[in-house]
From TrEMBL:
The lineage of its organism: Eukaryota, Metazoa, Chordata, Craniata, Vertebrata. SUPFAM superfamilies: WD40 repeat-like. The gene is Wdr64_0. Keywords: Repeat. The keyword ATP-binding does not apply. It comes from the Eukaryota. This is WDR64 protein.
Amino acid sequence: SLELIDFKNALEQFHNLVEKMVIQKTKESSGLYTKDDDEIDYDKFYATTRTLFGPAVKDHNIQAFFRKAMSNLDERPEWLEIFGCFIGESDGMPSPSKESMVFLVSEKQQITHSVVKRKDVIKGMVKVPLLNFIVTASQKGVLTVFSEQRKFFFRYSFYFHQDTAWITGCDFLPNLKYVVAVTENTIILWDYRPKETKYEGFVIKPMKNCLLCVCTVTMADNLPRDTILMGDDKGYVYLLTMTSDDFIMKQSRADKESQFRFFDSESFTILRRKLHDDWVGKVRYISALKRFASCSTDSTKSFVLDDIKRLEDNLPVKEFSVPKGVNAFTYCGKTKVIVTGG
């Protein structure tokens, strides 16, 4: 009990130290700060933190905490980070040889083709086991299919030109054979296969809210249709079912310089339901459970797991609350366990 009281006192002093340090840095940025004897620099922060917590904190964690706190004054790092709870420890890291033993990697192949340009990043990567290839989408619009044939990788890429919207996720439609990707205000359907026509796909726009994630609903009916789940920045989860007839029956327009045909989103029946009170970080259809799942940084409605029919009605959904929300989740069929990460 005495140790707990001492730790709480030390933690309170540490919070005061950080608060004072941030106030000082804020004043410095606005030119209102006058140096005095109470100035807190890194050396003073280090010495005070070491006095409060002793050998329980490591030098590199103190340095990382200080750098993170000073680089973003609006978002304070968690106090746990001073003990290295959110960043990797340098001690006890496995060597490359141990990693190989753990993962039993017999052969690795590096893809030397440049997938993205400078200052671009991969925002989505999906493996398609049935066709033995991988789909990637970069933030600035490079859609790529890596197909492993005869033990060599073949790459099919397409650059989707956009004004300011970034790609936020991708997946593959197994029945229609299209790559689906979402940007902040559009749905992209890319036909990656070689074709005689100049058009490489379709774009559905505009979407009312900013789309953040997308996934395909895998059904065992083998019908010529695909269903897509999407999440946005207002807490809505969308349900869109498409058939090949949609591309024939609906009116589209084709810009001269574009290789895509454009459809008005109002011409599609897109169901949506508000399930969260914050951004939807991830959506997924879990075939083994015949349920869809979505997560959010919302602390009250953090994780939803229910039948896909709940997106078509207003019946209550099975939802779980996690402090500070859920950023990621996965399902393990062997143990029948869902793991979430906040």
